[in-house]
Structures
1.
Amino acid sequence: MLAIQPACEADVPQILRFIRELARYERLEHEVIATEADLRAALFGERPSAQALLARLEGVPVGFALYFQNFSTFTGRPGLYLEDLYVTPQARGRGIGRQLLRHLARVAIERRCARVDWAALAWNTSAIAFYRGLGAQPLEDWRVFRLTGAPLEQLAGPDGG
């Protein structure tokens, strides 16, 4: 039996394991610097900045979704941003990813969110096909930008870069 529930603080080590597995699959494991303490603070600290769902099959963790709230000025309503969706290789093909997204869609509707957004790596054609199958549309005209490391520090500095 599949159960999808909000993660609790005791799930933090498992969430970090899943993040590392996802990063390995995405060929980005070298970028994972998060620690259990980081995740504990982000998910369960004084000012949580994200939430997570955990999927368990017969009580065994098999996947997760990590998300946070954003805001659309165009709709004047909040949205949800899905940062990570992961199902273990041995549990794939059983509809678990779809059920995680279904649960997230319900959260979005309950919160009166206008939309759910996420990104997919261009080479991950199976994920893209899965998302299209749900009715999700890629935003072809948009590019994702990231400011990190030294450029972020420089812009935040006293002279603004």
2.
Amino acid sequence: MELFKPMGLTNEGENQTVGETEKVKCLIIGSGPAGYTAAIYAARANLDPVLYTGLQMGGQLTTTTVVENYPGYPDGITGPEMMEHFKGQAERLGTDVRIGMATAADFSGGDLIVTIDGNRKIKAGSVIIATGATAKYLGIEAETKYAGMGVSACATCDGFFYRKKDVAVVGGGDTAAEEATYLAGLCNKVYMIVRRNVLRASKAMQERVMKTPNIEILWEHQVTDLFGENGVEGAVLVKKKGTPDEETVKINIHGFFLAIGHTPNSDIFSDFVETDQAGYIKTIPGSTKTNVPGVFAAGDIQDPHYRQAVTAAGSGCMAALDAERYLSDLKK
């Protein structure tokens, strides 16, 4: 079976534009560790990958200052610099990296069509979705002001920088409990700032928190502001907001960790690709295959558990290999 000629590709197998629709072998959506790694492997497999960066080129890692837990960088590296390395390697191997955002998708009828920036249609032989997940924030101005200067949405990524210091974790679910217990092993003291008077975390996680001596739960507290000269030095909280017992308190901290969840960036694909209740794309265990033939998912978009650069990169490799095998099988 000939795959590429009917899709408008040239005899040499290169990508081609026919009319208003561009036709490519491998379309990668997203430019974090998963997307760029997929591009590197796809390029080496002669899939002529086209990668669209999305609005945040480099993904969430570009909001991180120093990365010390990615192999191969013994002295550490900034997140933006590391993503530039990924991008440069992908381009050197032949990836067509483009600035643009996927705004719609249509995987019905056997064709894999993605619309970029609302007007450019691409028909792909295979699609690798690596659009990631966006951390939820409280929405206070200080979160932006202190981004990379004490505010983080990943304790595993940034907790190391706050060893023997006091930090706070916002949230009362399993993620918050896990982040707090992880940080408790590094930090002097961990405040858990919980909006309600109970934890939503599982019983097992609640027990872990309660048994950790340097975790203090601040029940019925909400964060209204952060303060500090050259980074976070403390937080302003309101206790029992909206009640007669309302009280404003301040705590001194150096690290402020958000653990109130992530939103997977899967909306435009969810009509076709199966997702879980939270919106994470489901993949066949042991692979990056989705329920749609030719569509693969890599990185945080399909990983609600680890959310690390190295695991995202690994799944990007898997997605490219899965896409190459899929396209190869169609030729047979």
3.
Amino acid sequence: MDKVVIHPEVPGMALPGVDRVAPLRALHWLRLGWGDLMHSPVSFFYGGLFALMGYVLVFHGAQDLSLTLGLFTGFLLVAPLLALVFYDVSRAMELHRHYPLHHHLRRMLRVRGPGIGMYALLLVLAMAAWLLLSAVLAGFFLKGNIGGLGGFAREAFFSGEYAPFVAAYSLLGVVFAAVVFALSVVTLPMLMDRKVDFATAATTSLWVVRENALPMLVWALLIVALTALGFATIFLGLVVIFPWLGHATWHAYRDLVDR
């Protein structure tokens, strides 16, 4: 299939071209991301730090259901920001360069600081809003002493007593995550790679989703499925899955935004 490039026209913005890709193109990104991961031992180290941080954050509040659920799902919201190091590693590999860990961490703080700072602020606000919403939903639907996440999960799946809460929580979670996803698909890799501001990168991300609705749905479902697998292994799987998705996201950006 010939390459189709869309040139968005937004007043006051100079946006790059947006490529239309095949519905299952995400499998290609995962393959390229896996190749980067296998050639980057530092990625496993950083993935281990991420998994440990996630475990501590989520299970530290294991006796407070609303807090645990909020952290469990909100954890996904900040993942693109934490994956900055993997974008930089993949970018260096494209240039046939290899740098130590501290180089990539330093670039995360130095390169495109204002734009990345704006994105970080957006994620902080989104995380705070989601934690508040989780607490409100739990307070409205759940009565009495529910206990921790384990006890609630058993009741929810086997008794059906909390079906209204699960349905409302899932629906709002999907809407919330979809908005954040649309604003995040290529935003951070673009900020790392080009001299653009946050508004330009985020608007480009929205255009990418608009022009590739089905491929983006497939990509989102793969991210959710792989991340769920990481959670199911008590975060151990994320040592591999998180850096793998980070590297794949870089290749998605390269494929979706015209150079």
